[in-house]
Amino acid sequence: MVKFRTVMGESEILGGAIAERPREVSEHPLLAAIYDRHDALIQRHAHPDGRSLELAFGRHSHPDADVGVEVFHQNSVDATGVEATTADARALPFADDSFDTVIGRRFLHHVPEGERGRIIAEARRVLAPGGRLILLEGTPGLYRRFAKHLAFRLGALGEDTDEYGHLSVGEMQTLLDENGFDTVELRRLGSPLMPLSISKRSWSARAAPLYERTQFVRWWSLAVATPTPEPVAVSRVVPAEDGEERREPRKQRHV
Ligand SMILES: C[S@@+](CC[C@H](N)C(=O)[O-])C[C@H]1O[C@@H](n2cnc3c(N)ncnc32)[C@H](O)[C@@H]1O
To answer: How far is ligand 1, taken at its centre, from the CA of residue 106, in Å?
Structure first.
């Protein structure tokens, strides 16, 4: 992996991916309640048997994850309860068909848009036939922009932009379609109370029931998908004689 720039604080750019030490979830009572809700939602969709892998778990791994992968070494060394591996989700150090569930939450926006397909293709490679891929990703939108900008102005966030941008529901669907997955479910999650999740005050947890009942702001989307039984059609970028890159026609590839 190429390490070409180090930025201030607990983050660095590794081969183009933004590796970081995220917030400690348990310090934010409403955020902790939201994570519990997401953990339960993911558990409902996970494959009932077998091994599960969590990609880019940051500082919070799913309670059912057997194996975790994180690109930022500081996250993977002290994670508890999972067999944490420091690795890049774009090149997983696992054999084909070795998991029944792959979970990835809130991290595709840390990777340049053109490389997200590699992550989904890797997830497909390590998933056994009939396995499940469960993604929870931030969606772009006016409310997110407004809320993050406000948090930044109040000093609760170090930056108010997302370097590579979040994924719309359509972009999630395209990523899954192009990398050999059938989407089983694609749903929106999010409440106008999201900005409150930054608070460390214990009273913020009291907003959890209201958060549950106000799931109408676009903030995240949850996608559940299963590998298609057919081989994936892949296209390869080839440098043309005039120096410009072109895409070769699609070929069938067994993955
Ligand atoms: C916003 S945090 C989310 C962490 C966790 N999934 C969660 O929901 O709390 C994004 C995480 O992705 C990790 N990350 C970024 N690019 C990665 C990559 N290519 N492979 C593995 N981890 C990556 C970062 O180090 C960071 O911990």
So the answer is: 7
